Here is the input.
Amino acid sequence: MDVINALRLLLHEHSPMRQEPVDCVLWVPAESVHANDYNPNSVAPPEMRLLQLSIMADGFTQPLVTWPDAPGQYEVVDGFHRNRVGKEVGAVRRRVNGRLPIAVINADRTSKEDRIAATVRHNRARGKHAVDAMADLVIDLQRRNWSDDRIAKELGMDSDEVLRLKQTKGLAELFADREFSEAWEAEGGS
Here is the structure.
């Protein structure tokens, strides 16, 4: 498998599609792939069983999207649950010889904020996010100096959704930099 991966990397280097991560899918040892610490996506047990069935019946039809966070080590950007199935389901693990298919995101997406945004975009394009976990991510990105507009743009939200998620956590500090107009004026008083 290592020789095949080396050949794929060589072909990818010369491919007219080399800027597309899916142009080079590698099969790496499952132990070299680990989950990120910010994925807000959750899958209910029935859907997890369905994913397991899908991979058992159809095989891996999508690689895990990863980021190389150390030599020979990859953090999952998208595919957290496929990662789990590949590692935890014995029949799948044996069939793929203890390896997982990965595509590595473009080299310019190295900051944690970029990876969080990529994870959210992948997940939102497919389904739902847990509200509290999404609120935590919005707060984290704001603390990393992302504006509400950038959060909305990068995560595929509108400004009202960003505001609602911030309100969900009830953190006044997130609104400290906002200017508010006087809504009411006292009449005849001092």
Notes: The longest strand covers residues 64-70. Residues 40 and 134 are 6 Å apart (CA to CA). The domain at 2-108 is CATH 3.90.1530.10 (Conserved hypothetical protein from pyrococcus furiosus pfu- 392566-001, ParB domain).
